[in-house]
Amino acid sequence: MSSKNRLLTSNQEELPREVIELARHIAALPKESQVNLEVSYNRVVDSVRRRRRILSLVQEALSQLRLDIKYLMFDLEMTRKERDELKARLEDQL
């Protein structure tokens, strides 16, 4: 596989348009220039993918946190309701 194909076909759907465009520009350069830029390009691609994974993990964590907060708010509301009912019962007994 040539480096031109490797630069242009490495999971383009997950890369920003600008990075894909950069790959096309690098692929259009002479072979010796491609070799020099390929390492840096691969680092950029790895960094973009890593940031996307991190962003995805953060979004999942936030979604879970929101759900947990909803459950906690429900539990708090029910606990207060139970407390108030027990308080009312005690007052009625006295």
Strand-helix topology:
Blueprint: H1 3-9, H2 17-28, H3 31-93
Which terms summarize this structure?
94 residues, mainly alpha
How would you characterize the overall build of this protein?
- The protein has about 90 residues and is an all-alpha fold.
- It has one domain.
- About 85% of the residues lie in helices and about 0% in strands.
- It contains 3 helices and no strands.
- The protein has helices at about 5-10, 15-30, 30-94.
- The radius of gyration is 28 Å and the shape is rod-shaped.
- The termini are far apart.
- About 5% of the residues are buried.
- The model has no long low-confidence stretch (mean pLDDT about 90).
N-C termini distance: 88 Å
Mean pLDDT: 89
Strand content: under 5%
- In sequence order, what are the helices and strands, one letter per element? HHH
Structural class: mainly alpha
State the share of residues found in helices, binned by percent.
over 70%
What does this entry show, briefly?
It contains 3 helices and no strands. With 94 residues, it is mainly α. α1 (3-9) runs antiparallel to α2.
